[in-house]
Amino acid sequence: ARVMFVGEGPGAEEDRTGVPFVGAAGQLLSGIIEKGMQLSRANDVYIANVVKCRPPENRDPTPQEKAICSAWLDRQIELVDPAVIVPLGSHAAGRLLRSAAGIGRLRGRVHQLDGRKLVPTYHPAYVLRQSGPELAAVKAKVWDDIRLAMAELGL
User: Fold this and answer.
1) How much is the pLDDT for 16?
2) Where are the domains of the chain?
3) What span, in angstroms and rounded, lies between the C-alpha atoms of 43 and 119?
4) Edge to edge, what strands does the sheet with 3-7 contain?
5) Average pLDDT by consecutive 10-residue portion of the chain (155 residues)?
6) How many other CB atoms are there within 10 angstroms of residue 108's CB atom?
7) Residue 114 region by backbone torsions, left for phi larger than 0, else alpha for psi between -120 and 50, else beta
8) Angle at 24 (CA atoms; ends 52, 102), nearest 5 degrees
9) 3-class state of residue 10 by DSSP
10) What's the pLDDT score for residue 15?
11) pLDDT of residue 31
12) Triad 19, 51, 65: Cα angle to 5°
């Protein structure tokens, strides 16, 4: 896959189906991939998560949980060998960029790490929690980030 999206962890729907990003956030991500980027979710992208198991009561994953799953994500990246990685949200961006900075500070530019290009953006679930002017502003920022990723891919 040319591009890899990395989320936080599976939600209830994802846990039930074993497929990442199938709920409402997944529908938004599919729209970004297929309508925005003109790519096939099934053939052109790979979607992974920082943690592989759903944390109880939908809480944030702990540093220990992220560390336990770390080798799995590293291996997925190695096998997929994407040209661009798009970390979705603070957990994914922080883990991949080894940074404690929030997504608001990490997004908006292309990062280089271990010879790979990373373009962090907001998590689709965060976008879905916004309303009114905030929703329009966050959607515009996500689209700016996706355009950066597309430019790196030559799209």
Assistant:
1) 86
2) 3-153
3) 20
4) 45-49, 3-7, 84-87, 116-118, 111-113
5) 94 85 94 97 96 83 86 96 97 94 97 94 97 97 98 96
6) 14
7) left
8) 60
9) coil
10) 82
11) 97
12) 150
> Exposed, middle or buried: residue 62 (CB in 10 Å: 0-12, 13-18, 19+)?
exposed
89-97 and 63-80 helices cross at what angle (nearest 10)? 70
In angstroms, the CA 152 to CA 117 distance is 8
If DSSP codes are grouped into helix, strand and coil, which group holds residue 142?
Answer: helix
Residue whose C-alpha is closest to residue 95's, from 115, 114, 73, 112: 73
Q: From CA 15, how far away is CA 17, in angstroms rounded? A: 6
Transcribe 76-134 into DSSP letters. HHHHH--SEEEEBHHHHHHHHHT--S-HHHH-SS-EEETTEEE--B--HHHHHT--HHH
Reading the block at residue 110, the tokens are 């292309």
Specify the CATH superfamily of domain 3-153. Uracil-DNA glycosylase-like domain (3.40.470.10)
Find where tokens 């890899």 sit.
4
Residue 128: what pLDDT?
A: 97
**What CA–CA distances, in Å, run from 96 to 19, 35, 104?**
21, 26, 15
Place of tokens 């999206």: 5
